[in-house]
Write a structure and sequence with these properties.
With 130 residues, the chain is α+β, with helices and mostly antiparallel strands. Helix content is 46%, strand content 12%. The protein folds into 2 domains: 70 residues, no CATH class; 40 residues. The chain has a 3-stranded antiparallel beta sheet. The longest helix is centred in the last third of the chain and has 23 residues. The chain binds zinc ion. Zinc ion binds next to helix 2.
């Protein structure tokens, strides 16, 4: 994933991966792309945001100065997100087989007092979710 002036590694941070996921929920009817300008107008909670591959007028971008979901939406519309990971049956199967060991690992963290019972349950629920 390489677009705008961003270092490619920026997109591997967990906070960025969350925004890539949120980007997928932006409704198409709220997005107007201007391909020749590599820009978009995206309707959001506080009005219409002016989006380029390097900036956005939303609060998230203003506060973090890192790609927000609107920038990712524009990048996606312009074809820059083609190399997002694709589901792999083989990798998914290996993960599923590793679940009992993963759960044991968090069980040990719970029993040692490193994590709360609530956190343990949330992690196990997430691991066992579809
Ligand atoms: Zn934004």
């Amino acid at each position: 994933m390489n677009f705008g002036n961003w270092d490619e590694n920026v997109h591997n941070d967990y906070e960025q991966i969350k925004r890539i996921a949120f980007m997928q929920r932006i409704k198409p009817e709220n997005v107007t792309v201007f391909p020749e300008k590599q820009a978009a107008e995206i309707v959001g909670r506080d009005g219409v945001y002016d989006v380029t591959l390097n900036s956005c007028t939303c609060h998230d971008f203003e506060a973090r100065q890192l790609p927000c979901k609107h920038i990712y939406k524009l990048a996606s519309e312009l074809g820059y997100l083609e190399d997002l990971p694709k589901p792999s049956r083989k990798a998914a199967k290996a993960f599923k087989e590793s679940l009992p060991a993963e759960i044991d690992r968090f069980k040990e963290l719970y029993f040692s007092g490193a994590i709360s019972i609530e956190k343990f349950n949330k992690i196990v629920n997430a691991l066992l979710s579809k």
